[in-house]
Amino acid sequence: MKTKPRVVVGLSGGVDSSVAAKLLLDQGYEVIGMFMKNWHDESVTISNECPWMEDSTDAMLVAEKLGIPFQAIDLSEEYRERIVDYMFAEYEAGRTPNPDILCNREIKFDIFLKAAQKLKADFVATGHYCQKGEIEVDGKPVYQLLAGADPNKDQSYFLCQLSQEQLSKALFPIGHLQKPDVRKIAKEADLITAEKKDSQGLCFIGKVRLPEFLQQQLKPKKGKIIQIPENLEVFQKLQMPVGIAPEDWDDDILKAISLPIHFTADQGKILGEHNGAHYFTVGQRKGLQVGGTGKPLFVISTDTKENVIFTGLGEDHPGLNRFGLFVKNEEIHWIREDLALQPGESAEYLARIRYRQPLSKATLIMRENGLYVIFENAQKGIASGQFVAWYQREECIGSGTIF
Fold this sequence. Notes:
By secondary structure, this protein is α/β, with parallel strands linked by helices. Among the domains are: 166 residues, 3-Layer(aba) Sandwich (Rossmann fold); 81 residues, Adenine nucleotide alpha hydrolases-like domains (SH3 type barrels, Roll), CATH 2.30.30. The strands form three sheets. Strands 5, 6, 12, 13, 14, 15, 16, 17 and 18 form a nine-stranded antiparallel sheet that branches. The protein has a five-stranded parallel sheet with strand order 3-2-1-4-7, with helices on both faces. A four-stranded mixed sheet has the order 9-8-11-10, with no helix packed on it. It starts with 5 loop residues before the first strand and ends with a strand.
């Protein structure tokens, strides 16, 4: 008969998940360590380094040190199908995916969770810097996704697509700690990962850098770089209407401010050539290799069908800074289902469109066709395919994929 709750920890071979496992042991859980092998496609190995082997060994040594059972699970096929194929399809379509958010929703808290449940686990735990709360609504438990206590490391944005069901099974043992404290605990416990650097690169692919990864799958294709002037008539419609609150805007104003603008080559001048529109994303500055423009040049739109990149001059270009965005109905996700907006309703939240971006005041306006998010201050580089997440103070309430 099982007396202690059993938890499977996703040991990644890094310091955060190592300390997560140690803290759970200290709290009296029965802990099993599991390493997820998510990628071993030799055709896209960028260097001779083999990060997953090193990480797997480190994870095993941590488990050994803590005296917990350990196993590795190969999820590379599911990872390719659900994350990598999606990523390439999105870039090819001129959108900007966030594989880390998808990895959490589809791999760690779905496939991995199911594998843990086969081991009769009550919970899965990760080394994410976020926290979980529980409240009661109408007599039922409702789980909250809360920001991590370390403002420099808060990873709640990466978990913004989790469901109530997934949250109910999740534990985040280090969410209340600061990063230096995590390293200190690891050092005191003599864990091999105590001084190990944080991994950079794609979720669980390790040291693979995205531009090189894309170039091995999406072939180079020469195309034009067009500079769009800031006095185009279309930009006049992007100004915030004076004296009318966003929730009182009609659909025409909402669409003008929130939907992507489609430019044509004859609206600007040719500045140079690029190697493929699918390598670029809205807001990007590096990699254009165009000189002599005075102010910095930013990507404001890409057209992967015509293979054209549209750019704007300077950080204040109206094509770069937008007040609104739109999320289609099927892409809206409420973590707090009890707070879901109905058509005709609106609410004020704090929102962000990328990790580590400061939260900004925004009005969410629900219409029959989807959700409009109107920011108090213009946001730089809103890109289709990215995720917008909205918060009430420390709590992530929901999220959606930007149209």
